[in-house]
Amino acid sequence: MSRRYVNQLSHGDSVDEAFLVADKQLRANRQGNLYLQLELRDKTGSVGARLWNATEELARTFEPGDYLLVRGKTQIFQGSLQIILTHLDVLDPTRVEPEDFLPQSSQNVAKLFNRLRELLLAMHEPHLRALVECFLIDEEFVAKFTAAPAGIKNHHAYQGGLLEHVVNILNVADRILEFYPEVDRDLLLTGVFLHDIGKIEELSYERSFAYTDEGQLVGHLVMGVEMLRDKVERTADLTGEPFPPELLLRLKHMIVSHHGALEYGSPKLPMTLEAVALHYLDNLDAKIHTFGREIRDDPVRESTWTPFQQSLGRRLFKGTTARDTPEGTDEA
């Protein structure tokens, strides 16, 4: 019997299905009664779920990354779909197909990686080309880079999402750089490739998406600079000379400043042409992806607006819906 995925659920559906636990919180309502607030996931997305009258003993039987067989019914609550659970069982992970539960890029990862190589290896600056070659011949790095998400819940939060995000930005940069001849093409493309490399170690993404201990304590900006410095030391084997200090400085600056503002986690504001270009290209791709997802995945199909999106600080306009009879007209 085929399973029902999250993107196939709608208001009022009965649910008897297996999901991966992405998040678990044991909470108390105003009367002090405990309930479980869960985020359940499969490869098509995630859905909130609540189990009333829960116990601490039940909550201790599973953790994020485990699989549950749940029963319940869906409802729309504050504009979002959720499942009100009546029962749950912890599943043996050997009884499930892992590929059913972690979201993956809808694009062909092999083609994305080939496009990445095509753009990066066409660069002319010898030290930058040697640097990207050092990354691309590192099989462990490539395996992680092509599997990692770009985030846990925000943009490109699926396996292969980091690669897809980087290739999107590279493609945009490739198309617009002719209008900005003062921007160093090879430097910008290298910075695009490197800006989020720390995420391959900041995040864990084998069974569920979460932060590693180092990711929580250090973060991908610092981790990315460390990875860059490690590879820079190896470029001399390809070029026969040391990596230019200013070139390294500019790359490090692009990594640490690409969030664009101190309040968004950048220890420095962009202070070079390539750094400011990277910031806006990165933000463009992330925002377009996030807006598109919120509009596409809104479960309330009849509304022309999404619910208020806390992370975006606004509702999003989806457009008018088709109606049998235009408003203000009488049927014949």
What does this structure look like?
The chain has 2 domains: 6-100, Beta Barrel (OB fold (Dihydrolipoamide Acetyltransferase, E2P)); 109-291, Hypothetical protein af1432. Helix 5 (161-176) packs antiparallel against helix 6 (185-194). The protein is of the alpha+beta class. A hairpin with a 2-residue loop joins strand 4 (67-77) and strand 5. The protein has 12 helices and 7 strands. Strands 1-2-3-5-4 form a 5-stranded mixed β-barrel. A two-stranded antiparallel sheet has the order 6-7. Helix content is 38%, strand content 18%. The termini are far apart. The protein has helices at 56-59, 109-120, 126-136, 139-147, 161-176, 185-194, 199-202, 213-217, 220-232, 236-239, 245-257, 273-297; strands at 14-28, 34-42, 45-52, 67-77, 80-91, 203-204, 210-211.
List keywords for this structure.
HD/PDEase_dom, 332 residues, OB fold (Dihydrolipoamide Acetyltransferase, E2P), alpha+beta, 12 helices, NA-bd_OB_tRNA, five-stranded mixed beta barrel, Hypothetical protein af1432, 2 domains, disordered C terminus, hydrolase, two-stranded antiparallel ribbon
Please describe the topology of this protein.
Blueprint: E1 14-28, E2 34-42, E3 45-52, H1 56-59, E4 67-77, E5 80-91, H2 109-120, H3 126-136, H4 139-147, H5 161-176, H6 185-194, H7 199-202, E6 203-204, E7 210-211, H8 213-217, H9 220-232, H10 236-239, H11 245-257, H12 273-297
Parallel strand pairs: 3-5
Antiparallel strand pairs: 1-2, 1-4, 2-3, 4-5, 6-7
Helix pairs in contact: 2-5, 5-6, 5-12, 6-11, 6-12, 9-11, 11-12
